[in-house]
Amino acid sequence: MPRTTNKVASKFKTALSTALKNVNSSLTLFAGDSGKRVENVVISSNVTLGVERPADPGVAVWFVWDGMQVCIAVDRYPKVEDNLQAIHHIVEARRTEMRHGGLHIVRATFRGFTALPAPKNKGWREVMDFLPQDEPQITRDVIESRFKRLAAQRHPDRPGGSHDAMTELNHAKEQALREKGN
Question: CB–CB of 39/28 below 8 Å?
């Protein structure tokens, strides 16, 4: 789905903590209304400690409902809390559909929110650019050194870097050190 390029001001007057509570509450009520569990809820945003207004205010809420992997993503508004509050209203709309149209209508609606499958995980050797002939020389020091070099390239603050690339690299380093353990 394309990203929203022209953000619009919302009429919401909801703090981030309240928007989080609203999403949690509406998902709990939705589960009760549908008689189907909502599980594995993940809220994803660029909010971090010390950064109240991230450059990308988009929010995605991932969860599993009735065997469906669902992702509701909103980036329409310039504030994280407003995008999160919009997700709350989207879930509330599904509750209204449930009351007036039934479970089959909500299932049909959620097909449009079907989460993309998780990317196939690359092995740590591929992520850290190790070749098969490197295998005998891969030690803890080599892993640490390679990690530092690649982190300088893949860090989100670097051109061409990203949170995803850095997360993948961190995970690869952990796997490598666990396996090699030297």
Answer: no
Note the Cα 147 to chain centre separation in Å.
24
3-state secondary structure labels for all residues of 79-133: CHHHHHHHHHHHHHHHHHHHHHHCHHHHHHHHHCCECCCCCCCCCHHHHCCCCHH
CA pair distance 79, 33, nearest whole angstrom:
30
- Per-residue pLDDT tens digits for 151-180: 999 888 888 888 888 888 988 998 898 888
What is the gyration radius of the CA atoms in the chain, in angstroms?
21
Q: 3-state DSSP call for residue 1? A: coil
Q: What is the pTM of this model?
A: 0.63
**CA nearest neighbour of 123 among 168, 59, 90, 87:** 168
Residues 94, 96, 97, 101: what is their CA dihedral angle, to the nearest 10 degrees? 160
Strands 59-65 and 68-74: antiparallel
Q: Look at residue 89 in the predicted model and tell me its pLDDT.
A: 97
